[in-house]
Amino acid sequence: MNETHEEIEALDRLMAASHSRSTPHLREIVSGDKRLSAEQVVDLMTGMKVLSLATVTAGGEPRISAVDGHFLHGSWTFGTDGRAAKARHIAARPAVSVAHVDGERVGVFAHGHARQLQPEHDDYAETIEHWTAHYGSDPTTWGADVRLYRLEPTWLVAYGDVT
Fold first, then answer.
1. Distances in Å between the alpha carbon of 100 and those of 58, 113, 139, 151, 160?
2. Which class for 70: exposed (0-12), middle (13-18), buried (19 or more C-beta within 10 A)?
3. C-alpha angle 69/162/11, rounded to 5°?
4. Smallest Cα–Cα separation from 109: which of 52, 67, 147, 148?
5. What 3-state class would DSSP assign to 1?
C-alpha cells in the first residue's frame, strides 16, 4: 500500500461524493456489503491491473483500449506509446474513463483527467520507481516516446464481493 492516511481519506470522500451523485440504478447495485471502502480499493488494487481506458476522438466518438494500471496514492497511473491513438486523444482531450473489472468479484470505475507525468512532477520519480520494480526495467527505456499518466479522478465508485 502506497497511500498515506490523508490520501485514503481523500479517496473515501471522493468515493462517497461519487456514489451520492450517481443514478439510483447504480446506487442500488453498488450498495451494502458490495460497496467497497477506499481502504478496500487500495488493498485490492495492489500490483498491476488491466484497465479499460476510454478516450474520445476529435469527432466525439468513444474509443476503448487496454492499458496496464497501477493504483498509487489513491489514483491510477497508466502508460502508452506516444504513437498510440490514445496518446493523441489524451493530448487533445484529457478527459478519460477507466475501469478495472474482475468478473463479479470486483469492479473499480473512474472518470477524470489524464495528466502526463513529467520529470518535474512531484510524483514522477516514485511512479518510475514503482513501475521499474514491478517490470524489472525502467519504463522510460521501453521506446522513444513512452508516456506515463496519472488519472486525476473526479468520480470513482467500486463494488466487490471480497468476503
1. 25, 17, 21, 13, 11
2. buried
3. 50
4. 52
5. coil
Q: Give the model confidence (pLDDT) of 41-73 as tens digits.
A: 999 999 999 999 999 999 999 999 999 999 999
- Give the separation between CA 62 and CA 9, rounded to whole angstroms: 32
**H/E/C letters for each residue in 52-121?**
EEEEECCCCCEEEEEEEEEEECCEEEEEEECCCHHHHHHHHCCEEEEEEEECCCEEEEEEEEEEECCCCC
Q: Which of 69, 66, 3 is nearest to 37 (CA)?
A: 3
For position 2, what pLDDT does the model report? Answer: 80
Would you call 45 helix, strand, or coil by DSSP?
coil
What pLDDT shows up at residue 136?
A: 98
Query: Can you read off the three cell numbers belonging to residue 8?
Result: 485514503
Exposure string for 118-132, b = 16+ CB within 10 A, e = fewer: eeeeebeeebbebbe
DSSP string, 134-161: HHSS-GGGSSTTEEEEEEEEEEEEEEE-
| Cβ count within 10 A of residue 162 | 12
